[in-house]
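Is this the right way to post structure tokens for a design question? Let me know if I should format differently. Anyway, here goes:
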């Protein structure tokens, strides 16, 4: 039986980016990354328009104050908010 040599057996070589890669990195960033950050409540507003009414997440102690500012109520196990 002859081995199948049509399928590559080695993974592509991974290398760090170089200054020569800058133009392509900039192009990809422009194509796939927002030029301006979204507002803090953009995702919540978007999901609410789609009918989502219950939001649950697990927040670290450091992140909990941010979510509380957005309307989540603190719970020992998770942060929760209901929008109707």
């Amino acid at each position: 039986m002859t081995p199948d040599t049509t399928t590559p057996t080695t993974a592509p070589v991974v290398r760090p980016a170089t200054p020569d890669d800058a133009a392509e990195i900039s192009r990809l960033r422009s194509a796939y990354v927002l030029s301006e950050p979204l507002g803090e409540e953009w995702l919540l507003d978007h999901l609410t328009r789609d009918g989502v009414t219950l939001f649950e997440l697990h927040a670290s102690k450091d992140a909990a104050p941010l979510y509380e500012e957005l309307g989540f109520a603190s719970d020992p196990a998770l942060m929760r908010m209901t929008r109707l």
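Format looks fine. Someone answered above. Worth noting: The mean pLDDT is 78. The chain has three helices and two strands.
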